[in-house]
Amino acid sequence: MSEPDVLFDIDNLSFGYGGERILEEITFRVTRGDFLAIIGPNGSGKTTLIRMMLGLGRPDSGSIRIMGESVESFRSWDLIGYVPQRATELDPLFPASVREVVAMGLLPHKRWPRFLVPSDEGVIDEALEMVDMVAYKERRIWALSGGQQQRVFIARALASKPEVLVLDEPTAGVDADAQERFYNTLETINRMRGVTLILVTHDIGVITKHVNKVACLNQRLIFHGSHQDFCDSEQAITLFGPDHHLICHRH
Amino acid sequence: MEILQFPFMQRALAAGLLIAVTCSLLGVFLVLRREAMAGHGLAHVTFGGVALGLLISVAPVWSALGVAIAGSVGLLKLKERAGIHGDTAIGIVSSAGFALGIVIASMSGKFSVELFGYLFGNILAIGPGEVWVSALLAAVVLASVTLNYHDLVTITFDHEMARASGINVGRLDMLLAVLTAVTVVLAMKVVGLLLVAALLVIPAATGLIAAASFLRAMVLSGLSGGLSVLGGLVFSYYLDLPASGAIVLTATFLFLASFSLKGPTGRRP
Questions:
Q1: Angle between helices A120-130 and A176-192 (to 10 degrees)
Q2: Which of A163, A162, A204, A164 has its CA nearest to residue A183?
Q3: Per-window interface: B 13-72 vs A, CB < 8 A
Q4: Testing the interface with A: which of B32, B147, B157, B165 to mutate, by most A Cβ within 10 A?
Q5: Is B232 part of a structural domain of the chain?
Q6: Which ipTM value was assigned to this complex?
Q7: pLDDT at position A210, please?
């Protein structure tokens, strides 16, 4: 794998809080075009790991390089879109329209003072079209269902035309049909647009159908590799037990 | 109109409208960040600054401004570093500021009447110089909000998402803290320190109930703040009411009217 294709290079990363070890000696790479699922039980350090990868926390030891630069000096955050876990916990009184939420994704590209210009409307429309939400542009964000809100947050992340999209439990609280449509959208973004996806999830179904790489975390990285290698591994059987065959069956 | 023939009323209207619109716009951010009571707490701190200015014979607006900015930044740092809830930090900083004011007032023992003017507001006594100072400070706040509008909306919507986008969240938090201090000092002459929070909170809440987008909420909040001062001054003049109370009651009436027409806003069931 050539170096330009390595988007995240995590080397021997460890982190603890209040005397408790949360991440220990994590080493793996994310390469261009991956659709990577980070899985693991509650409290395994999944969210902590992606917060470190996004520069939102500092490891105790080890290093993170993003597109060849250390995370401390990395400045091209517009190349990395982020859809946080707490999207459904945002303030329901916030009066933002769908258009305003997506426009927030344009800011990293702009210099201060970051005013919107008429051509930005086209970028907002394009991002909403990718997630099939352009008809909802002037609606208030809280008038939408959980699944529709998450598609808008994806559009917000896509508006900056990122090379990587990081999603933390994006389908929490979303019904099964909406989840399936959501993951189909992600797969299209990954295959047709070439956007690398990093997905933290508990959802066994998504591992089954959509991703091509799996990182299994439980404080330590207990597996990192392709979906098929994961299926053949002892870790999959240990982790998922009787559900193992469900994960490893491709439709 | 008869009411506008008097220079003191012209000054009250000019300064009041500027200050109310400024407070209303900033208030939208504070309400959504659940920092609405920071304005109330800073008003107590500002009382200490006014007392200090009167003691050392400095124009109270400048001493209040210095103390309010120090209090607001202190509040921010206390929340960030002491690991305590925002309302606890407000309780500590506001109590300390108000206690400072009481001690200074007691030590000098000669300016209780002047202090009363700042506690309850005296918009009709605003002098020409104070109109210009209000205009200057209001211009600074409005320009800061305008130039940082999209960044402020983004950090208010989701702090962590904004940080992950590379936005300098710490700098913007500091900016909001300083602007809040400036608006509290501006508003003290209009409605008095005891009712400062009203100008920051009520018009913003009115706009937030009625609007379907953030920009509309800002516009409606500004209109609501301006109408509150206009209506309050008219009621004050014709019904012989205290101006500060009339302004706040007008703002409250507008909020209730907005609430009645629109109903509570909430999450989709």
A1: 120
A2: A204
A3: 32
A4: B165
A5: no
A6: 0.83
A7: 83
pLDDT for res B110: 63
Backbone angles phi, psi at B268, to 5 degrees: -60, 130
> How many independent structural domains does chain B possess?
1
pLDDT of residue B269: 41
Q: How many CA atoms lie within 13 A of A82 on its CB side?
A: 24
Out of A54, A77, A96, name the one closest to residue B157 (CB).
Answer: A96
The answer to whether residue B102 is domain-embedded is: yes
Task: Please give the mean pLDDT across all residues of chain B.
Answer: 89
CATH number of domain containing B154:
1.10.3470.10
**Residue B220 counted as domain residue:** no
Find chain A residues with C-beta within 8 A of B158's C-beta.
84, 86, 90
Residues of chain B below pLDDT 50 = 266-269
Residues from chain A contacting residue B33 (CB–CB below 8 Å) = none
Please count the CA atoms within 13 angstroms of the CA of B39 that sit on its side-chain side.
34
- Please indicate, yes or no, if residue B254 is contained in any of the structural domains: no
Does the distance separating the beta carbons of B157 and A140 come in below 8 Å?
Answer: no
For residue B179, what are the domain limits?
A: 2-193
